[in-house]
Automatic annotation (TrEMBL):
Keywords of the record: Membrane, Transmembrane, Transmembrane helix
Annotated source species: Penicillium alfredii
Protein name in the entry: Actin cortical patch SUR7/pH-response regulator PalI
GO cellular component, one term: membrane raft
UniProt cross-references to InterPro entries, sorted A to Z: SUR7/Rim9-like_fungi (IPR009571)
BP GO terms, sorted: cortical actin cytoskeleton organization; endocytosis; fungal-type cell wall organization; septin cytoskeleton organization
């Protein structure tokens, strides 16, 4: 038995709300030293042999953070769109013991900086789609509009997630090759990829909800019944005329 438009619209809303929550958690990770934001980060590396750097460093959207004794982020003042650029004045301001892959290139700086505007744009479309999703539960046009908005959100979310994966995986490998143990932040990556999957499912549910009720020829069920009623009236009239002439 197929799902109704209301059910599909509700499922679209559910997956959209889940994706927005996960995106917000990743976006705000490192902005404050409070749970759960103090356990979300993109990359952790041992940087104790770099002059002026903390023993262990973690990169977030907002700041380079040190690590407390209980394994939580210890971040200072927040700076939106904090770049992943270890030798720059924003981070360590030195090239001593910094992996050579980071020196003399803007690749890591530019890739990490583009993540922030893309995630903001995607989040903007996702939030609008969340509100229009209320219409998707009762109208076809609401389902298609919400599906289009969620598709836009999905596009920017996937771009952000791919940029994040590329730049921080390369950064992890660079630190490891330099003898500085590094690993990715599991929560941030899990949140971002799961949010992408939820956006895809939301887009699918909205579009399916918009398609519910379409009949052959593009007529709704009510229109089909009306056409069927008049067709039966015409056929009865034709039969009556034949009997009269007979």
């Amino acid at each position: 038995m197929g799902f109704s438009r209301a059910t599909l619209g509700f499922l679209g809303l559910f997956f959209m709300a889940a994706s927005i929550l996960l995106i917000f958690l990743t976006l705000l990770g490192g902005a404050r030293n409070s749970t759960p934001l103090n356990i979300i980060y993109f990359l952790q590396a041992d940087t104790g042999n770099i002059p002026g750097a903390p023993a262990v460093s973690r990169w977030t959207f907002w700041q380079l953070c040190s690590v407390t004794a209980n394994g939580k982020n210890d971040c200072g003042s927040s700076h939106p769109d904090f770049p992943f650029d270890p030798p720059s004045h924003r981070t360590f301001d030195t090239t001593t013991n910094v992996p050579p892959e980071f020196i003399g290139t803007k690749h890591y700086f530019l890739t990490s900086r583009f993540m922030f505007p893309f995630i903001i744009i995607g989040l903007f479309f996702a939030v609008i789609s969340l509100f229009t999703g209320l219409l998707a539960m009762c109208t076809r046009i609401g389902g298609y509009i919400s599906g289009f908005l969620s598709w836009l959100a999905l596009t920017f979310q996937v771009i952000t997630t791919c940029l994040m994966t590329a730049v921080y995986v390369q950064g992890r490998d660079a630190f490891n090759r330099n003898g500085q143990s590094a690993h990715l932040g599991v929560k941030a990556f899990a949140f971002m990829w799961t949010a992408s999957a939820c956006l895809f499912l939301s887009c699918l549910m909205y579009c399916l909800g918009g398609a519910v009720g379409r009949k052959d020829g593009g007529y709704s069920g009510r229109e089909q019944r009306r056409r069927g009623f008049f067709s039966s009236q015409r056929s009865n009239s034709v039969r009556s005329q034949k009997k009269e002439y007979a």
